[in-house]
Design brief:
With about 300 residues, this protein is an alpha/beta fold. It has helices spanning about 25-40, 55-70, 85-100, 115-130, 140-145, 150-155, 175-180, 195-200, 215-225, 230-250, 255-265, 285-300; strands spanning about 10, 40-45, 75-80, 105, 135-140, 160-165, 185-190, 205-210.
């Protein structure tokens, strides 16, 4: 396993729909090209930002197929394959491996709170369906309802395909624990965008973020400054990113609807969001415009 391919900034890929709400292969490909042009290291496809919980298995396959058609050999691709049942998750894992992704990832089963051995069995069953592909645990307890623990990670480390954790829990201490437990070659990716600088300080390999899309330049510069020892500038960029995120979250519409509105202003059309996520209202356009202006001002100032 080459840890270097998991270092850097990985935008979480957004769901791309036609105007009628169907998956849009053309818009998926256009968004992939947009990210290649931004110079990011990789993409996290089919996660929360991809609205996976509201998509069917075949729809998720179409998304990944079109991402890979554009990104193969240009970006590291991590495909989130978890569904709320093992059979569908294994099907997506097999499909992802067949496409040649670098890694698959999975949240724990949601709704029913399974014991740790049940979660481990679920993850190992998924991994077994893609036996030649790296596996990354997705720890997001605030949404999944269950948290990764050192004991569960120790159990999963018995699986040689388990190479890392995407950590979206709020305590940055968790990043330190997973990195310390996993060792120097263990991949730990920071999840909460609002604390990327803190995650890097605690040992994160890089970041996977839902707000990276319309302002990848800022997160790339933040990491660059942090690694070069420019902590004051990195902190200033982090603060600006947080202010932009707070603005994005101030609309009536869902944050991803706002982000897609910003991307539209940047020349990339992703469509809307899928219900029950809430779309933009007429009043939300002012939020989109202000957030977009804040992004451009921050890029001009720091990048």
């Amino acid at each position: 396993m080459d840890i270097k391919k998991y270092q850097g900034i990985f935008p979480a890929f957004y769901a791309c729909y036609e105007d009628d709400g169907a998956i849009s292969p053309e818009r998926v490909r256009a968004l992939t090209r947009y990210f290649i042009d931004k110079g990011v290291q990789g993409l996290y496809v089919g996660g929360s930002s991809g609205e996976c919980i509201y998509q069917g298995v075949e729809e998720r396959k179409v998304v990944l197929e079109n991402v890979m058609a554009e990104a193969r050999g240009k970006l590291t691709i991590i495909a989130h394959v978890a569904c709320n049942n093992t059979a569908d998750s294994r099907e997506l894992a097999r499909h992802a491996e067949g496409l040649g992704v670098d890694a698959i990832a999975a949240i724990p089963p949601i709704y029913f709170h399974l014991p740790a051995y049940g979660i481990a069995e679920y993850w190992n069953d998924i991994s077994a369906a893609a036996p030649n592909t790296d596996f990354i645990i997705y720890n997001i307890p605030q949404l999944a309802g269950v948290a990764l623990t050192p004991a569960l990670l120790a159990e999963m480390r018995k699986n040689p395909r388990v190479i890392g954790v995407k950590n979206s829990s709020m305590p940055t201490q968790d990043i330190q624990m997973w990195k310390d437990q996993g060792g120097a070659d263990f991949v730990v990716m920071n999840g909460p965008d609002e604390q990327l600088i803190s995650g890097l300080a605690m040992g994160a390999t890089g970041g996977i973020g839902g707000t990276y899309g319309p302002m990848s330049e800022l997160y790339l510069k933040l990491r660059e400054e942090f690694l070069a020892g420019g902590l004051a500038k990195a902190q200033a960029i982090q603060n600006e990113c947080c202010r932009i995120i707070y603005k994005m979250c101030s609309a009536h519409g869902n944050m991803y609807a706002v982000i897609k509105g910003i991307l539209r202003k940047q020349g990339v059309e992703c469509g809307g969001v899928r219900k029950p996520l809430t779309g933009l209202t007429a009043d939300d356009q002012a939020v989109v415009d202000e957030a977009a202006a804040m992004i451009q001002a921050a890029i001009a100032k720091y990048c």
